Amino acid sequence: MVGLLGLFVYGATTNERYHWDTYRKYLFDVRISQGAWVTIQLTFWAMVLGIGLGTALAVMRLSGNPVLSGVAWIYLWIFRGTPVYLQLVFWGLFTSLYPHMRFGIPWGPAFVHFDVQYVDAAFFFACLGLGLNEAGYMAEIVRAGILSVGEGQSDAATALGMSWGLTMRRIVLPQAMRVIIPPTGNEVISMLKTTSLVVAVPLGSDLYNQQHQIAGVIFQPIPLLLVAGTWYLAITSVLMVGQHFFEKRFARGASRKMTPRQLRALAEELGKQGGGGP
Amino acid sequence: MTSFVKSPNSPSGQPMVDAAGVHKRFGGLHVLRGIDLTVRTGEVVCVIGPSGSGKTTFLRCINHLEQITGGRLYVDGVLMGYRERGDKLHELHPREAARQRRDIGMVFQHFNLFPHMTALQNVVEAPIRVQKMRKDDALAAGRQLLARVGLGDKEDTYPAQLSGGQQQRVAIARALAMKPKLMLFDEPTSALDPELIGEVLDVMKQLANDGMTMVVVTHEVGFAREVGDKLVFMDGGVVVESGKPADVLSRPQQERTKAFLSKVL
Ligand SMILES: Nc1ncnc2c1ncn2[C@@H]1O[C@H](COP(=O)(O)OP(=O)(O)OP(=O)(O)O)[C@@H](O)[C@H]1O
Ligand SMILES: [Mg+2]
């Protein structure tokens, strides 16, 4: 296995059709790094929307209120039942359905008057499209997390006079996090790559489409694909480190092992006791 | 369904719990079939009975974790879970039901501590979030309570790091932190190893001596005999027999009580 891989790497580095000079030239090109930045922003906002709305949908589904859970069910049915590419094209066409949108009191002064034909509309709709789709998947992840917390927990909270909302926020969701975070990490990493579909909106400033445009001009697709691949890998690696950190943070109380804080306290305690020693 | 029962209001010795003809159905399953029971302020009432007789369900009805489906249930003169208008009952808004629950402490068979919080955080959570107590005050009171149940040195410990007996004592401290006027215990020692039962019963004895009104579902006959003011035997969703623990235990009047006691004693 390792031998084959070595052979492949050796072959690749010596095969001039890979155009390693072009790879080196464009690896830190401004257009590429800006594209990477747009990709990161798209991922971030889509996940913020996806997690926020997904949590709301999960809570709605579990609320026991038939109207709320019905609405949530229909949402999931639509957004998980159609391709994300189709949804992105739809949000792109939204601008032609409603060219002028304003946020404010109806017939009153507009707080934001924003002409969707302008600059960042494509970015906005790309985030919206990706986020709304993601919410459908996050809702199921959050729901599984909530269901993993035993009923005894909400019984105990309720018996202490805590309201349903407080019980969710302080008792159930923090414990559900342990189940929610690993698949959410996967969703973030998957979202990073799904952003390449925003060309459907159309938005062309993300990493994938930037490299695609450059490659189209210089007729050298291979090295630019490798450039983009390198960036995606680098960002994914950072995300994986972040995921590890989050998992540890929410594992509090899950094991019998002492936390670093408890170990420090213990060490101090022992230090005090042993203070008179040699 | 029993007739309208007026909230008892005699100034001296008003009952803390007054159940009259309480029924509870889960769909087609008729679990409580007319429970009549009075618990006076300061009294310790122990409840025994075979599995499935409805003991847990009845306790959960007292603090309205379950909605009763017939009869009347008053705690400290207040009808639980409903508002009475004329002879019609209206369900309370969840917020008001939560308010009623605040002064009723409950201790569960499986402790149900919040595993993501330390012992002290478990104890102060509700006083801070529900009673809006100042954080410093709540922490000071919480530390005192942990000391009172013999766990003064465990405040930074997570439940998973505590023994069952210690967890149950934290759970008792957590319930006491809301300064309840009534404490409900649902088989607080039956999930514990035999050698850990004593430490929990000791805390409960101390609590009883301090004058707390308590309803205790338990199979610890020794505890009932020593601490209980009254022993209630439940079977099939009704109170079959009740009286002084010593009397019920040594001279049961009902056949069903005799049969049950001969199995557990
Ligand atoms: N939420 C519920 N839904 C449906 N049935 C229930 C529910 N809770 C309890 N029951 C049923 O009610 C009956 C009485 O249960 P309960 O837990 O009150 O008994 P118990 O006397 O506490 O028994 P044990 O000694 O085993 O704890 C049982 O048949 C149980 O299956
Ligand atoms: Mg029970």
Task: Give the tags.
heterodimer, A: 278 residues, mainly alpha, MetI-like fold, two-stranded antiparallel ribbon, flat, B: 265 residues, alpha/beta, six-stranded mixed sheet, four-stranded antiparallel sheet, 9 helices, binds adenosine-5'-triphosphate
Describe this protein's structure.
- The complex is a heterodimer of chains A (278) and B (265).
- Chain A is mainly alpha-helical.
- Chain A has a domain at 36-102 and 111-210: MetI-like (MetI-like fold).
- Chain A has helices at 2-14, 20-27, 30-62, 66-81, 84-97, 121-147, 151-159, 164-194, 207-218, 221-249, 260-273; strands at 100-104, 110-115.
- Chain A has a two-stranded antiparallel sheet.
- In chain A, a hairpin with a 5-residue loop joins β1 (100-104) and β2.
- In chain A, α2 crosses α10 (221-249), α4 (66-81) crosses α6 and α8 (164-194) runs antiparallel to α10 (221-249).
- The radius of gyration of chain A is 25 Å and the shape is flat.
- The model of chain A has no long low-confidence stretch (mean pLDDT 87).
- Chain B has nine helices and twelve strands.
- Chain B is α/β, with parallel strands linked by helices and 265 residues long.
- Chain B has helices at 55-62, 94-101, 119-129, 135-148, 164-176, 194-209, 221-227, 245-250, 255-264, and strands at residues 15-26, 29-40, 44-48, 70-75, 78-79, 82-85, 88-91, 104-107, 182-186, 213-217, 230-235, 238-243.
- Chain B is 35% helix and 27% strand.
- Mean pLDDT of chain B is 92; it is low at 1-12.
- In chain B, the strands form three sheets. A six-stranded mixed beta sheet of chain B has the order 8-9-10-3-11-12, sandwiched between helices. A four-stranded antiparallel beta sheet of chain B has the order 2-1-4-5, with helices on one face.
- At the A-B interface, α7, α8 and α11 of A face α2, β8, α3 and α5 of B.
- The complex binds adenosine-5'-triphosphate and magnesium ion (MG).
